[in-house]
Amino acid sequence: KEINGFVQKGPFTVGTNVTINELNADLSQTGRTFSTQINNNSGGFSINNISLSSDFISLRADGFYFNEVLGKQSNSQITLNAISNISDKNIVNVNILSHLEKPRVEYLLTHGVSFSDAKIQAQGEVLKIFNFISADFEPSELLDISKDGESNAILLAISIILQGYRKEGELTEIL
Fold this sequence. Notes:
Layout: E1 3-8, E2 17-23, E3 29-37, E4 44-47, E5 56-63, E6 66-67, E7 72-73, E8 78-85, E9 94-95, H1 96-110, H2 115-129, H3 150-163, H4 168-174
Parallel strand pairs: 1-9
Antiparallel strand pairs: 1-4, 2-3, 2-5, 5-8, 6-7
Helix pairs in contact: 1-2
């Protein structure tokens, strides 16, 4: 399997570590972990030729990012997460929405909701917090703040709203 994507609050910086954990259907870790790094100024990463026995993965990125409000690199690192079913995709982006919805997806799954329904419900609930409602919203792990489209623009707006003029520690606390 090949997994590609972007890590964006603003784009994470080159060299940021991205950790991919294989998950069982109940989202418990299988013990298989893969690592890669951001390799361009857009926050892009790629990992090739990994062998997975499950379609579920979690991603974690710890690093510096481009602060889109101040127009400069962050002074401290932050952590963003994502969770995805990769049975029908090889692109998984990590961003503010994927980070905010992950714990809710995990909670819903433990209460009998299917993974796909949990993702849809969690994303809807997060968007509603920011007063965004869209029936045609793309999955958070497919969104990219550098691309056109309403869903991508909403991701950028939420990212800017949460950043404001906050320091990284304050942003992490809010997240």
